[in-house]
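Q: A reviewer asked whether we had any structural model of the full assembly, not just the individual parts. We don't, so I'm hoping you can provide one. Inputs are below.
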Amino acid sequence: MSVAKPLPHDAAALHVTGRARYVDDIPAPRGTLSLAFGLSDTAHGRIVQLDLDAVRAAPGVVDVFTAADLPHANDVSPAAHDEPLLADGTVHYVGQPIFCVVADSHLAARRAARRAVVAIEPLPAILTIDEALAADSRFEDGPLTWTKGDVDAALSHAPHILEGRIEMGGQEHFYLEGQAAFALPQENGDMLVHASSQHPTEIQHKVAEALGLPMHGVRVEVRRMGGGFGGKESQGNALAVACAIAAMRTGRPCRMRYDRDDDMTITGKRHDFRIDYRVGYDDAGRMLAVDFTQYTRCGWAQDLSLAIADRAMLHADSSYHLTDARITSHRLKTNTQSATAYRGFGGPQGMLAMERVVDQIAHALGRDPLEVRRANFYAAEGAPGYPQTTPYHMAVEDFVLDRIVDELVESSGYHARRAAIAEWNATNPLLKKGIALTPVKFGISFTLTHLNQAGALVHVYQDGSIAMNHGGTEMGQGLFQKVAQVAAQGFGVPVETVRITATDTAKVPNTSATAASSGSDLNGMAVKAACDTIRDRMAAHLASEHQADPASVRFAEGMVHVGGESMTFAEAAWRCYTARVSLSATGFYKTPGIEWDRIRGTGRPFFYFAYGAAVTEVVIDTLSGENRILRTDILHDAGASLNPALDIGQVEGGYVQGAGWLTTEELVWDDKGRLRTHAPSTYKIPACSDRPPVFNVALWSQGHNRSDTIYRSKAVGEPPFMLGISALLALSDAVAACGPAYPALDAPATPERVLMAVIRQRDSGG
Amino acid sequence: MTQTRTITLTVNGDSVTRTVPVRMNLADFLRAELGLTGTHVGCEHGVCGACTLHVDDAPVRSCLMLAVQADGASVTTVEGLADSGRGAALRAAFTARNALQCGYCTPGMLASALDYIDTGGSADRAAIREHLSGNYCRCTGYQAIVDAVCDVIEGRVTA
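A: Here is a predicted structure for the entire assembly that you could use as a starting point for your response.
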């Protein structure tokens, strides 16, 4: 068995010796040029002067181009054709590329870019949610609303009503490897592009549009990324297109990487949200009606914002059954970076608001929030009311959180620790502790249904070695190894027999982004289909040699057994080759049973749900707001895990990243629309010393996907991110110990914000 | 601006002489001039730790050191970590513990971890966490990295 083994990352040996190549590590041919963009310093305005003479005269500069010089499309958007590569007369945010310099080195290009004389006549800039609402600046004609039941009637009958607002910040991806691309001109005007991208097909598409080529004229290869997290789904388009244009103009290979400050200034981030809520509930804390209004700043271009805002709506229920719900979403257009995909894709924001609501209900009733959570959980199979439906009318058939939470409560000692914390808080005036248990239910599938497809290409060579390729990209998550395990399983060979090759648009076409946690689900199935095809051909031939039934041929432990004879897999491959059996196959997969109407908000957008739960304990210093996570316990459902070691890595990393989003990571724009936190010196991601000193992470031993996924595993990329919500609510719990009010702690809960909340809380005690 | 200077240094045991721009930093020198691309640049202002390596056995941010400052020094990059001893044990432990995902921070992380071990650091998790706090990893959540360092110190993994 290759699947279910905790094998290390496929490239681990390369990484620990420094031999793993990222885009900027690829040896460049002599004459390779480097690119840099000149950026807008104004949030919104008309370009009235663009004098690039000094740029052209700068040392090492070979070429400079602007929007007017582009031969074909000036667009790097993923869908809406609203995102020019280079500003075409108007700038829409601080950091927007205006022109591109091509020089003989990275530094020469960057230095030259600073010499431009650019005059921009400012136009009114819309920076905040309130400004966007006042100006009715939005994507789509108006807000999108989904309803289930009769919310107003249910609210009017509810014994208790509570309302409030939560604000949550965005998040910089801070992939350690910045955006990078490398274009090499080929014969006949074709272009080869190496990109650090989660979406090679989109790079191919945008480069082809920009060069006026059919897609077959562009080949994109992605071996690996140094982190992606959604930030390389669309944000790498600009670099790849710029390199390809420069390569076409100069006939020389061209590469580009963003310096970190440029990267953070230019590229989109997680959407920040404001969510208003009004909820009706009974004495047991059961929610009777919920009305959410979500506002999000999408930035200047649409990018993936509609789908992201949709997913925020789709997770507004978190893990709770709502008979009557209304969810309204405002997708606001602002003069800031175009907010983009980030792990969870809007789901975390929608879910956080609901977890706040539940927490606040518990506070109002003087109950443990865990009780209120349990009172509102969806019914599991066998429980009364099963299956219950989400606010978008999808039946929840695979709910397991009741069992996961029971196990986690036990293993984490939740109740005893909660009691101990209450005792501690009663006797410690300065340091206060808090604890929270929060669940995750995350829908798996792209909500744009046609994206739920994948292709694969598998070759068995005559020596029995296997080359495998699929549309998924490796950004560190371990996808390549998991899928290689699937291939090895198919042929009954050790995983070392399978060579994992770089994602390549010339091998597998029309791929979807490696996103939505779908990588293993989709590509694993596609690879399995290809392997099954080849194995069936081999079995048919070998069986015919032995007058045996093809179904009786066994592939196991590197051997093939047929009609009483055993041979190595290599020998079997050789025999099939010499008998002229095709040993190469494509595989294809499309997720079954999903359909979705995003305007009406009805259907079955998800193939299944992934679940998990976390308990976080924190301590705060009430004099400074400083805080620490003391302990975290997680139980996460990865189904029947394809690789428990890699999945644990996703869970641990996801939690820490999620906790970072809600605690230390703060994006600050000034009143001119300039991002003031554009480097790690001012933007704080979790360091080793920030992670919980006690960190107990386990995959749920009962995990098994009801839906027919690859070996009954579950997607694990995004769901654990939302386990980090427990960190914010634990901080809120600690603040709550300072006074009688509900803290209503917004995110990120930086020390300042915690301190201000403590002061409010103390004041509330009169 | 274009002023150059000739430097001689030892890189991974080999003597190297090059004429370099005086403003070129050590990371760019190693990557561009010597092709040692295992040294990664993450933030280029000394915060993320990705470019950490050893100069005369001390950990250094190679984005904050000029190549000319390394004149006469001995530089060890991830490519030059010994194939035996603690460096090799650390490599094995990082692999076995899954202490890397995207791998971009790994060379710098190994350099800082090796410094901790070589200077007699104990298997005290809090001390390890503190020592590695200048090396960002965005993928792993650090748990496996601390585990790997403990494994080497406590002799559970050897080369």
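A: Points you may want to mention in the reply: The first strand of chain A starts at residue 33 and ends at 39. The radius of gyration of chain A is 27 Å.
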